[in-house]
Design brief:
Blueprint (H helix, E strand, L loop, with lengths): L5 H4 L9 H11 L4 H8 L4 H23 L5 H15 L9 H25 L10 H4 L6 H14 L4 H11 L5 H8 L3 H17 L11
């Protein structure tokens, strides 16, 4: 899924250099690591911030899409996440942790949207979003796998958002438990409880067990 350009979606700093100078510096600065780019962005260097956006926006979009099961509002989530990043960048102590920090912001934004949609569905004011198998299934997935994915995401929608997100990060995105806890900004014990609750719910509703050793 294409992401709208930085200039169109993130009008955060004015007074940029000429397009040619901008492109030349962007190419050079793109060789820096995240810690170096964050240090420059904290000094209001818009080119460094754009380099961070270009490097990590696809990751942010994919994370939002896989948690939701579709691409609905994914670009808006990513836009909002980078706006928050821009306003709170000084809160990030370790620049090398930028990707994980961005991911935690995306997770919080998606969780808020899922909670809102769930409430609206309870009130009969929102129709559940359809799972987009074209974005969550691999190109090699056959009809049986796609049917199982459709059933899986339908059941995930019935879970509390925090349980749903924890399970998805662990068993769809394949993150280690420690990484899931970091993305969700909660303890390892809390993450384990959420994943276990989600797995029990899936197992009780005849979805094949996806759990693996929690090590």
């Amino acid at each position: 899924m294409a992401v709208r350009s930085h200039n169109a979606r993130l009008r955060l700093v004015e007074g940029a250099a000429s397009p040619r100078t901008h492109r030349r510096r962007l190419g050079a600065i793109g060789e820096l690591d995240d810690a170096q780019l964050v240090a420059l962005a904290k000094q209001n260097d818009i080119v460094a911030f754009e380099a961070l956006y270009r490097r990590h926006s696809a990751f942010a979009v994919n994370l939002a899409v896989r948690i939701q099961g579709n691409s609905t509002d994914a670009e808006d989530v990513v836009h909002d996440a980078f706006v928050r990043v821009h306003t709170r960048l000084n809160e990030l102590r370790e620049g090398a942790a930028f990707r994980s920090w961005l991911g935690s912001i995306v997770v919080r934004l998606v969780r808020t949207r899922l909670r809102r949609r769930r409430l609206l569905q309870t009130l009969g004011l929102h129709t559940p979003d359809r799972v987009d198998l074209d974005v969550v299934a691999s190109d090699e997935a056959g009809p049986e796998v796609r049917a199982q994915l459709a059933q899986l995401y339908a059941l995930l929608r019935a879970m509390p958002p925090s349980d749903r997100i924890a399970w998805t990060l662990r068993h769809v995105e394949r993150h280690r438990l420690e990484a899931v806890a970091e993305l969700m900004r909660c303890s390892l014990a809390t993450v384990k409880r959420r994943i276990q609750r989600a797995q029990r719910f899936l197992s009780d509703h005849f979805v094949p067990a996806y759990a693996e050793a929690e090590s």
